[in-house]
Each structure stands twice: as C-alpha cells, then as structure tokens.
Design a protein that fits this description.
The structure holds 3 protein chains of 3 kinds.
Chain A lengths: L1 H5 L1 H31 L1 H13 L1 H30 L16 H4 L1 H25 L4 E4 L2 E4 L1 H8 L3 H28 L5 H33 L1
Antiparallel strand pairs in A: 1-2
Helix pairs in contact in A: 2-3, 2-4, 2-8, 2-9, 6-8, 8-9
Chain B lengths: L12 H11 L5 H4 L3 E5 L3 H13 L2 E5 L17 E2 L11 H11 L6 H20 L15 E2 L6 E4 L5 H18 L3 E4 L2 E9 L2 E9 L5 E5 L2 E4 L20 H8 L4 E2 L4 E7 L22 E5 L16 E2 L1 H5 L9 H13 L11 E4 L1 H7 L1 H19 L8 E10 L2 E2 L12 E3 L17 H21 L13 H20 L3 E2 H15 L6 H21 E2 L9 H25 L23 H4 L1 E6 L8 E6 L13
Chain C lengths: L2 E7 L8 E7 L8 H14 L22 E2 L2 E2 L21 E5 L8 E3 L2 E2 L2 H8 L21 H11 L6 H5 L6 H13 L1 H4 L2 H15 L9 H5 L7 H14 L1
Parallel strand pairs in C: 1-5
Antiparallel strand pairs in C: 1-2, 3-4, 3-5, 6-7
Classes of the chains: A mainly alpha, B alpha+beta, C alpha+beta.
C-alpha cells in the first residue's frame, strides 16, 4: 500500500477514482436540477430531500473529501509534472496528437474551482445556512430554493458565469471520464473507444443540461 | 603457422562439440569472480555473451559506441532466425540445417563450426523464448515457422519483420539484468581504438569516450570482440551508418589474422540509390520476392512508364535464367543478375541502375487484400521514400552491400590468433563460408554468444585465476594509448578542405565498382591503385573540424574511414588472390559457359587468412585447407 | 529548395544553449530529413563552422537512435515514423523548420540535438527482464502462448526506445515506454513470475529519475514511431494495482 501511495501512478489512480466519484455526484446533481424544469414544487421537494436525508447528509462530507483529494493530488501532480521538463520547447504543436481538454485539465479544473466557489456561496451555502423563504408543499414547510434559483438566473451575468462553468465542466469531463477508466486500468483498445464515445456524450449532456436550466430561467424573465 | 591451430577436436562432426565441451578446462564458480572480461559490441552476439558471462560469475565490462546496447545493428535484421527444431515435421534436422549452410556458403566454411551452430541453434530459440521474445505463433499457441531463402524446409522463427530487433532486445534484457546485479558494467558511447597486448595476451582495450573525448584504458583477463561487419565500407549499404571495422582492424594490426575479407554478401532487394545525398540504402525484405516478379524491359534504354510496357516486351530474367527457383534464386545469384542486366543497359529508373519488382500478377491472382496483409508496411515504406505506389506500378530495386562473411580468424574456441582475444558473431569469419543463408546471422550470433563462447573462454581463463587484476599502468597500455592519441591528433592536424564523408563516398564507389558483386583482375588492380591514391589524398586534404576533447562526430567518422582505407586494400588483395568464383565472390575469369559462378576446388578450397605486416605492405597469406568429412562439395544449382 | 532552419546549439552538457538560424540553400525534396541535416553540416564544415551534432544510426526506423523535435512535434509531422524516415518532400521551398532536442529533466542535452537517454536503461534495470539464465530455458514449445497474447506482446515489444513518448508528453512522462515492457512481459506466461516486482519497481524508478506522470493525453501513442497503443498503459496500470494492493 505504501508503494501505491508513493508512486506517481498510485496518486494518479486516486485522482481518477475521486474523479469518477465526483462525476457520479454531478449526475445526481444534474438530475436534481432537472426538477427545476418540472416546476417549483418538484424542485423544492427534491431540494428538501437532498438537504435533510440522512444518507445524503453522510455522503456530503465524503464528497468534500473527494473534492479535496481530487484537487489536492491534481495540483501536486501538476507541479511534479512541471518539474519533469525544466527547459521548455520553443515550438510545440500538440494539436494533432491530443485533444485540447486533455492538455488543459489543470486550467479547466482551476476555472471549475473558481466557479465552484461562486456557486457554493450562491446556492449551496444559501440553501443550507441562510434564511431563505419557506413555502408549503403537501402540507410541509420547505425552503423555497426554486425562487432563489429563479432570481439568480434572472441576472444575465450570473447565467453567463453559470453556463461558462458548465461548459468548462463539460470539457473537463470530456477528457476526464475516459481518462479515469484508463487510469484505473479498466480499458483496452476497444473499451477506450467506448469510454471516449460515452464520455463525449455525457460531457455534452452535462454541459448542456446545466446550461439549459440557466438559460430557461433567463428566457423566462424576458 | 602454429598460430593457425584450429583446435577442432577429432571424431565425427556430430560429436565434436560435446566431446570438446567435456574435455576443455573450466573455471570454478568462486574463481570466476576474480576474472574480468571485456566485451566490445552489444549486438545479439555481444549482448548474449556479456549477459551469459555475467550469469556465470565473471566480471564483465561491455562496450558499445551507441548510447544504448539496444541500438546495435542486430536490431535491423528482418526476416528471421533459423533453428533445426523440425516443428513442421518436414524432415528438418541438425544435419540438414548443417548441409544447407555448407551449400549456401558454397563449401567455403569449416564443417565443424557450421555443425556446431546448427546443433546449438535449437537452444538459442529456447533461450530467446524464455527471455520473452514474442516470436510468431500458431493459433495453438505453438511457435510458427516460415520458409526462407532458398531452402526446402520451414525452419525460420520470426517476429513479424522485426526478428532481429526482438532477438536483440531479448539478449539486451539479459544484459540489463546482469547490469542491475552488478555483474556487467556498461560503457556506452565508447569507440574502441586499440587492443592492449601484454606478454602476447590480450589484456585490455583503449577507448575514446565519445562524449568527453577522453582516451581511456580498460583492462581485463580476456577481450571479446563482437563488433559486427564492415559492409559500410561501400558507404552506401543496408547497414547502420555507424557500423564500422575499426575495432576488428585494430586487433588485426596487433596480430589477429583476418580471413576471407572479400566475402561480402550483396542483398538483392534494396531500394536503389535515388540521389547523391543519400546516406544509406533501405533494405526491402527478401520476402517480397515470394510474390513479386523481377523484370527489365527487353528494349535497351526504354523510356516508357512500366505500366505501358506490354507483357511480351518484358524480360523476367530470373525466371528465364533460373527456371527452378525463378524469383527466389539465392541472394548472390539474384544480385548479380540485376547488375548484369543494368550494366548491359536494360536498367530502369532515372539512373538506369534498378530493376522492376512487380506485384501486378500477384495482386490480380490473390487480390490486393492478401498482398496488403503480407507486405502492407513495406509498400508504405516504399511509397514514403520514393513517392511511388507499388500497388499501382512496379517497385524499383537494386542490390546493396549487406553482410560480411569475412572477418577475424578464430579457432574452435572462437579465439583469434591473439591469445585471450575472442571474436564472435559477424566480426569473425567462421560460419558462413562464401555466402550466408537468410536467417543465418542471428542464429550464429545467438549460438556464439549464449552457448559457445561462455564455455570455451574458460579453457583459456583457467590459467588466469591467480593473475589478479590487470593494472592499466603497464607500458603496453601506455604505448597503445599514445598510438591511439597520435592517430587522432594526426587526423585533426591535416586540416584540409574535403569532408570525411566525401572521401568515404569515393572509397565506397571504388569498392562497389571493383570489389562488389563482380570482380576481375584488371578491376581489382585498378582499385588498389585508386585506393592508394585516395588514401594519400585523404591524409593530405581531409577536414576534421573541432577538437578531440569534445563530442566530435566528424572525428569519429574520420577514424573509421581511415581504417576502411586499409581494410579496402586487404579486401582487394584477397579478391585478387582468389581467382575462382564462389558464393558471393564472383570473378569474371571463373564462370561456367552460361555465366554461373565456377568454383575451383583443387586450388581454392581453403580459407584465405591474412597476416598484417605493416602499413601499405602486402599482407602475408596463410592458407588453411578446408577438410570435408561429411559433405561433398558440388556445384550449386538453383 | 531554400530553407530557414532554427536549430538548438549547445556546446556540451554544461554550456548554455541557444537557437541559431541557418539559411540553407540548395536542399532537395529528394533528401530525407537527416540527409538534409547532413547537407547542412557539409556546408558548415566547408565554412569552417562546427557541424550540428545529431544522433542517427540505422536510418530505417528500427534502432531508435534518431530523435529531434521538429516544428513542435516528436520525429516531425508524420505519424508512425521516426525522424530518419521523414522525407523532405513533406516540406516546401521557403519553409522555416524549428529543430530541437528532446526536452526532459531525465534526458539532459549532451550536445546540440543529442540527449542522454540512459534513464531508460535505468528504468529497465529496475525489472524490464525475465530472469532466465542461459541454459536454464525449457524447450520453446513447452509453454504455449495464445496467439492473441503473442501478437499483443509483439506490439508492445516493438518499442524502439527512442524517447519520442517522453517528448510528446506534456508531462515528460515515460509511461508508454514502461508500459511497453511491462505489458509485453505481463502478456507472456514466462514473464508472470516477476510481474509484480517489475511493475512496481519500474514505476518507482521512473519517478525517481524525474519523469512526469501520465495524464492520458494520448500524445505519446500518436507520436510513437511504432504506434504503441495506450491500451498497454492501461495494462500497466492494472499490473501496478495488482502489485501494490
């Protein structure tokens, strides 16, 4: 085990595994968000479930650990990798040999991180820790997250930030998804193609899914 | 002549090796650790020898001029490696392999050596397989064989078109393992400049560190040369550009005899020279001849595109002249036939120095898919280099210098005429006679390196267990180092106008024209004259830039070319001496009425072994008669 | 054709290097790339300048000696080929070509375009072999190897050790090089006995030597003259997992 953690591959494996875990979270997140399109009541109930269900509450700290691992090790590896080429090439043309996202995971990750901070303070923090309006659904008073979201997305600039975040995330996953399977060794000639196709599909789905919701609310205000 | 004791044991040829192994002296395990061995060259022979010696417990120092042993030129062998496993149940046996090599070599090899290689060949396959060499397999999981180069059985083991690479990497991995265990120390990027002789025994070498330029001394109880062949003497050849004769030549000048230097195999299917800038010729696998038909136009100076030349105006000359083997005639015969046609004015291409290799009929018969699956990568390579598509129009090919059967004389223990100096693989002359069979080179290298040398070297080293470390401050080291340094200083001080490469090109042209595929007395004499003039010019007008205390590639080349001049002279002398034609050595004066090689067994059934007598002096010839107990020399018919 | 060549010149390992621009006249599209450099060197020697040091040997794409990072790509623009197989017909009159050595901490420049790739040897020394002494090998056919495995092992083993993967990688990772050996030997029954220590030790050695880690960009696979697949890296990852967990 110590060999595992000491080796660059071992650490990279943790990035991949935590990435896949975070990816599963994103899927759940998107699913919940899609309730926004179904209306105020559906979404508020879904949010209420997510903020009160004990299972979800237990997973939340694990999710936080996932983020910390994913980000922490990636940053460490990125700097480690920088050291591997102290003198840079004068002219680099990697456009034929690799995809843009695959070369810019750190940048994308950084942008997503910035977005994450904004996003968490705007939504998650507000829903969990601030007093927002309550509304009655099926005889129970729940936080009216729907209205909060709708209000936020009525700001065009916030929609721009949000859509940009979703697109960055899409690019990040575009490489990250198939890369994670490669890293944990669940890949070969055939499966790599499958993971790539699936990754392309899912990354577009996620970027589009999150964006559409924001745009939907923006359009509604027009 | 006492130096030419072959030490071949008595008895029937099939029992000699076993008998010899049982009789020779050995060094016990504890004593081996007190003995140092230098191995120069890390191709299949050198790497397998160094690793095997390390496994036995000797302290080995391995040297190569490349940055890594893995780049030695064994890496480029394409076709395969022979062994008498008889996996195909097609009647193969050690005896038959032995006979095929003898016949392929036109009965100019020693029976005992050839038999031993054939006998050991099976173990080489076992060893390489165990080392992880991914030889081609049948669906059953058992090893596959193919037929190769004019023999009637399928005995060639192969790994696609990269058999040499895979075998070398197998041996190299063994070497790497001994390095990791501390039994082998690798000195890469070193050119061997001289061998050091103390009291008549090889005790070390002088090298130049190619990075720092430092001249270094290395001592050992025995020195093994596994330095390959000298085909680059032609400048353009299929060999790696860095291949050279310098280590072997340095040994020769110190007293190691050189045998059959003029026996050089010219490979028939190389890409023709395209222009004057060309630095080497690219080999196209001989396997192409299985499906390609070779032809030239019947009309001299034909200018039409090959596809426009109708069938009846094409001369499929190999099929015409050698109906039994047709396009699969042995290498030397195919090569000469191409040269003959081109010299007669029927050649094609811009220079008129190439012939067509046409796949039209095979594609029509078997389909493009089949041809593509067999030769796709070669066709791509061809198109990449020439810009012509072999599926649409015929390839153009021409022979190129490929393998040198000649080399340092060795006895049955693979020891040269200098005590304690050994020579293995292509650098010795021993196993292929006047022509080498396809897939025979890797076989010999593996045999020598894994199974012969590691045993026989003990016989010599048994006397050295009490010697102790060889000091490098002995006067002989001093002198050899000074000699090496002086030569370099001399080269640097000429400071003329012409580049080393321009001299090499001119030297190569002389050798190719007069001591290549076809030789005659007049040409060889002319070559000797031209060589001596060119050599003089070289030493007056060569330009070697830079200094000796740095990485200096021009200097490295210059050292090699300087040696080539001397070797070239000996090659011509040897070719002049042998007035018969045999194998790859074709003398105009000695041919059958229909233009085939005519051996003269009564006069030339011997190994021509040459002793160095001094610069620009004729060498002394020692004739070692060939004795045939098992095979009866007869005319090769193909 | 006339070319502008921007070439890295560095006197030795300790010296500071820089790019020097050469105007080369009279090159031909019939030349190979390395013949074009030979030609440049001839002109330099005649002018009394120091020729450009670059490595090459077999000039047919199998020895792995040649290197060069040409216009931003390892071994130039062609896929599945080494620099020695690159032809000048791929360039036009008036082109500017930037020629750089491999760059990685583990591949220090020795002179001009020549780098030291000893690090690869060190990685192999950590386990890139099967410990089979000469003489101890069983009869070759006593261990059948499924053809599919043998073919895959061959594909992995076709690595020529040139270092293009390291150069092509934005992280200067040697993962494809390591994978080619680990995968080859893992696929063969002969190599299973030492599979665990091999994967573990070779990875550890590469880390120690200062190679970067793999981020699966796949550039190595594209620039590898032998087209060795990333699937071998996936197998390496599996072997590593098996070996360490």
């Amino acid at each position: 085990m110590s060999n595992f953690l000491k080796a660059s591959i071992g650490r990279k494996l943790l990035v991949g595994l935590s990435g896949l875990f975070l990816f599963s979270f994103i899927l759940v997140h998107l699913t919940v968000n899609l309730f926004l399109l179904a209306g105020q009541e559906s979404y508020n109930i879904a949010t209420h479930f997510m903020t009160t269900n004990p299972v979800i509450q237990t997973i939340e700290p694990i999710l936080a650990i996932g983020f910390i691992l994913h980000i922490g090790i990636s940053v460490w590896l990125t700097f480690w990798n920088q050291r591997a080429r102290p003198e840079k090439f004068l002219k680099v043309d990697q456009s034929k040999s690799s995809t843009w996202p695959s070369r810019n995971m750190f940048v994308l990750g950084g942008l997503i991180f910035i977005f994450l901070v904004i996003h968490i303070s705007n939504f998650w923090y507000k829903i969990n820790f601030t007093e927002i309006g309550y509304i009655e659904h099926g005889g129970e008073m729940v936080k009216d997250a729907y209205t909060m979201v709708a209000t936020s997305f009525s700001n065009w600039w916030y929609v721009v930030i949000y859509v940009a975040g979703a697109v960055f995330l899409g690019f990040h996953l575009n490489h990250g998804f198939q890369s994670a399977f490669q890293t944990i060794g669940v890949s070969n000639e055939i499966w790599r193609k499958r993971w790539t196709v699936l990754g392309n599909f899912l990354s577009v789905l996620i970027a589009a899914g999150f964006s559409i919701i924001a745009l939907y609310f923006l359009l509604k205000t027009l | 002549m006492n130096k030419l004791n072959t030490k071949i044991p008595d008895g029937p040829v099939a029992e000699k090796w076993t008998k010899h192994k049982n009789k020779i002296r050995l060094v016990n395990a504890a004593n081996k650790t007190k003995l140092d061995i230098i191995v120069v060259g890390t191709g299949l022979a050198g790497a397998s020898a160094a690793s095997s010696l390390g496994e036995l417990g000797y302290n080995v120092k391995a040297f190569c001029f490349q940055d890594s042993p893995r780049r030695a030129h064994s890496v480029a062998a394409q076709g395969g490696i022979n062994a008498a496993k008889n996996y195909k149940n097609d009647g193969d046996s050690i005896d038959r392999l032995f006979y095929d090599i003898m016949k392929g070599g036109d009965f100019r090899a020693r029976e005992a050596f050839v038999y031993r290689s054939a006998e050991v060949s099976n173990f080489v396959i076992d060893q390489l397989t165990a080392a992880g060499v991914p030889f081609a397999r049948e669906y059953s999981g058992y090893l596959d064989n193919r037929s190769f180069g004019g023999v009637q059985v399928s005995r060639t083991f192969y790994a696609k078109g990269a058999t040499g690479q895979q075998c070398l990497l197998g041996a190299y991995s063994g070497l790497i393992r001994q390095m990791s265990l501390g039994k082998v120390t690798l000195y890469s990027r070193r050119d061997m400049l001289d061998v050091v002789i103390i009291d008549g025994k090889a005790r070390g070498i002088i090298t130049r560190n190619l990075v720092t330029g430092e001249i270094e001394r290395h001592s050992a109880h025995a020195v093994v040369l596994a330095t390959g062949g000298y085909g680059t003497i032609y400048y353009l050849s299929t060999l790696a550009v860095g291949s050279n004769a310098s280590a072997a030549w340095a040994a020769h000048k110190k007293g190691a005899f050189f045998s059959n230097p003029s026996f050089v195999q010219i490979h028939p299917t190389s890409l023709p020279q395209l222009n004057d800038y060309q630095a080497k010729l690219t080999l196209m696998s001989e396997s192409l001849r299985n499906d390609g038909r070779i032809w030239v136009p019947k009309q001299k100076g034909e200018k039409r595109h090959p596809n426009e030349i109708p069938e009846e105006e094409r001369d499929y000359y190999l099929e015409r002249m050698y109906p039994a083997y047709g396009n699969l005639a042995p290498r030397d015969i195919s090569s000469r036939a191409a040269k003959e046609r081109c010299d007669a004015g029927y050649g094609v291409g811009k220079t008129g120095m190439s012939v067509y290799l046409d796949f039209k009929d095979s594609i029509a018969k078997k389909g493009k898919k089949v041809i593509e699956s067999k030769y796709g990568n070669l066709f791509e390579l061809y198109e990449k280099i020439t810009g012509e598509n072999p599926y649409e129009e015929p390839m153009r090919i021409y022979p190129a210098g490929h393998y040198t059967m000649g080399g340092l004389w060795v006895d049955y223990n693979l020891m040269t005429s200098i005590d304690g100096l050994y020579s293995i693989g292509e650098s010795n002359f021993s196993d292929h006679g006047a022509n080498r069979l396809g897939a025979g080179s890797l076989m010999q290298c593996g045999s020598d390196g894994y199974f012969v040398l590691p045993v026989t070297i003990g016989d010599y080293l048994a006397d050295d267990i009490k010697t102790g470390k060889i000091p490098t401050n002995h006067a002989a080291f001093e002198e050899a180092e000074k000699h090496a340094r002086d030569k370099i200083i001399k080269l640097l001080s000429v400071n003329g106008k012409q580049t080393v490469t321009s001299f090499h090109k001119r030297l190569g042209k002389i050798m190719w024209d007069y001591c290549g595929m076809v030789r005659n007395e007049e040409g060889l004499k002319k070559a000797l004259k031209l060589l001596s003039e060119l050599k003089e010019e070289f030493w007056k007008d060569v330009k070697v830039p830079g200094t000796m205390d740095e990485l200096n590639q021009e200097l490295e080349k210059a050292v090699k070319v300087a040696d080539f001049f001397e070797l070239a002279r000996l090659m011509c002398q040897d070719a002049l001496n042998r007035k018969e034609s045999c194998g790859a050595h074709f003398r105009d004066e000695s041919q059958t009425p229909n233009g085939e090689a005519q051996r003269i067994d009564e006069e030339y059934s011997y190994i021509a072994t040459w002793e160095y007598t001094g610069e620009d002096k004729d060498h002394n010839l020692h004739k070692e008669p060939l004795e045939f107990e098992c095979v009866k020399p007869k005319a090769r018919s193909y | 054709m006339n070319l502008t060549l921007k070439i890295w010149r560095q006197k030795n390992a300790k010296a500071k290097g820089s790019f020097v621009t050469y105007k080369l006249e009279g090159a031909s599209q019939e030349m190979s790339f390395l013949e074009m450099l030979d030609y440049l060197n001839t002109t330099l020697i005649k002018k009394g300048e120091d020729p450009v040091a670059f490595e090459h040997d077999c000039r047919e794409g199998i020895c792995g000696t040649c290197s060069l990072y040409i216009n931003g790509r390892a071994h130039g623009q062609d896929s599945m080929s080494a620099t020695c197989e690159l032809r000048m017909s791929r360039y036009k009159d008036g082109d500017t070509i930037v020629i750089e050595p491999w760059r990685a901490k583990a591949f220090p420049v020795i002179k001009d375009l020549i780098v030291d790739r000893l690090a690869f040897e060190k990685i192999l020394e950590a386990g890139g072999f099967i410990s089979a002494n000469a003489g101890a090998a069983p009869e070759a056919n006593s261990i059948p190897v499924p053809r599919e495995h043998a073919d895959k092992a061959f594909d992995a083993a076709s690595c020529i050790g040139c270092g293009a993967c390291v150069s092509a990688c934005k992280n200067a990772s040697a993962q494809l090089f390591i994978a080619s050996k680990v995968s080859q030997l893992a696929l063969l029954p002969q190599g299973r006995a030492e599979a665990k220590s091999r994967a573990r030790n070779m990875i550890a050695k590469a880390d120690e030597l200062g190679f970067g880690s793999c981020t699966n960009t796949g550039a190595c696979e594209v620039e590898c003259p032998k087209g060795i697949s990333l699937a071998h890296i996936a197998r390496l990852n599996r072997e590593f997992l098996k070996a360490t967990l």
